[in-house]
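tool_call: predict_structure(chain=1)
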Amino acid sequence: MPKDAIINYQIKAEKIQLVDNEGKMLGVFSFQDAAQKARSLGLDLVQITDKTDPPVCKIIDFGKYLYQQSKKEKKQKPARAGEVKGIRLSLGISEHDLHTGAEKAEKFLKSGFKVRVEMRLRGREKAMAEFSKQKIRHFLEIIQAQTPVKIERELKMEPRGLSMIIAKNT
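tool_result:
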């Protein structure tokens, strides 16, 4: 239940402006008359705003009201541009798996995420850093054939392997 939702007998005002379940303004009523009208329709009396005098109340199904409020909140969520998703590649990755990873990265990019491309290198694989860089460059070529990307952080060697961050080029 939203913190600011005041329903039925939680409403403290003696006089209220009443709106019916179809959105039509009915006028100013006493709280008792408005509550009786809502009860007779089998609905709830929900205080929409208390910023006016008298406050505005609406006759509506409270469950439906909560659903509409949650939909509004979801629409107002900020974009996810700062979040980073990860794609991990291996040195012996096949061509098909590269394409599958590229499709997944494209999906993340189109959703507004940045993508961290990692290639873990273990043991003797660390000696093949140049071959690993070629694999990652090939992976980028596959992605750029479909979606233009910009490199946020260049490909660099880390203790566990190679990584870079890419984002959708707008």
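agent: Residues 129-146 form the longest helix (18 residues). Proceeding to next step.
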